[in-house]
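Reopening closed ticket. The problem is back. First fold of the pair:
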Amino acid sequence: LGCPECMYNLALCLERGQGCAPDVKAATGWLFRAIDCPVVSAEDLPIPLYCRALGIAQAHNAIGSRYNDGIGCAKDENLALEHWKKGATLGCSSAMNMLAICYENGSHGLLESLPKARDLFMQAATNLQSSTEAMVNLARLYGELGLLKQSLLWLDAAVNWGDTSA
């Protein structure tokens, strides 16, 4: 049956050279194997099934970043966006954050939409994974809009979650 979360974690080890020689090609292969696992919804699942969905979601996010940067595959912004959307739909806060950045900047073929960016940053900052990067991005966005009270609240939240860069 395969465990997509395990496949994702193996890909991270291969990419970073943890316990083995670094191998970006093999890492990329394991990410693609993870996303080929049957998809289940991440909402209201018992923990084992939630972890399965999360492994697939994290793999989609990682593949999106690889396509975005051209690491282990040809650079392709459209495929990067497609995988970030899939990862976000499955509950990956990092994918939500990347998708929000695309909306904020009007990049990867998306029209600029600060409301959509804000909503995605908010989802990423408040879901089960609580992305501190999204909290900082949300704080920055609120600051740019002149909403300093909200900006400070999200910076404080990021610091409370251990983000020392905030």
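Second fold of the pair, where the issue appears:
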Amino acid sequence: MCAQAELEKCKYENYELSEDRKCLEYEEVLRFLRLLRFLSSSGPNSAPKVVNEATAQSSSDDTPLDERHHLLQRYQDFPRGLSFSTLQLVYSSLEEDPSRICMFMYRPNENPPEHGKLHMLTTYTTQKDFIVQEFHPETADGLNTAYKTKAQIYRDGKFYETWVIFTDRKRCTLLRTPGYHDLCELFTAGARTSGSLNNYCFFIYAMFCKEPARKFTSLGDCWPPARQLSP
């Protein structure tokens, strides 16, 4: 900083905004968190209903927002949440699940001109390979058709409607399956523990889903055949 008398001697430099992908992704998540803060501080006429009202905390800071608020839809696009890499299960709200999906692999170019197929490793079958289902993401009623926030996912012998709570389109996707024990899951494409790059993924899970009932530290921890494949 310069004193008033020294202003003439000061030199200034202009800096451009960073175009680094990591910085842009981080800024996108900050927008999401700012939006959550804005919605949670809205007045009674504009604030959405809370999720799971019966178990909501009395403090407004601990009260999760409605996951399906229309302002959140840009962070809830199902195809974009799956398109960058394979995703492995890290957190689950179910301690016991006979049909746990341990890995998603999205192949958008299969089954054209539809949205492709999902290849999944699941504990529902004993086969040591992926099961495959067609992927038909849909736009929720009243939302922008550019964002497809839900899809039917095969679990326990039938299809259940699954919603995206949040995706950063790169490292993590959070899913909610209301008809299947209100299951809440965190899938990541990278680190399985909270770190500098994906800390917000775990934070947002805690915000909407609370403490997970199960944490998985490896694919083999979730999907037993992977243990046999390990050297």
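Update: turned out to be a display glitch only; the data is intact. Confidence is low (pLDDT under 50) at residues 1-19, 43-63. The beta strands are 87-92, 101-107, 117-122, 131-134, 150-155, 158-167, 172-177, 183-188, 214-215. Please close again.
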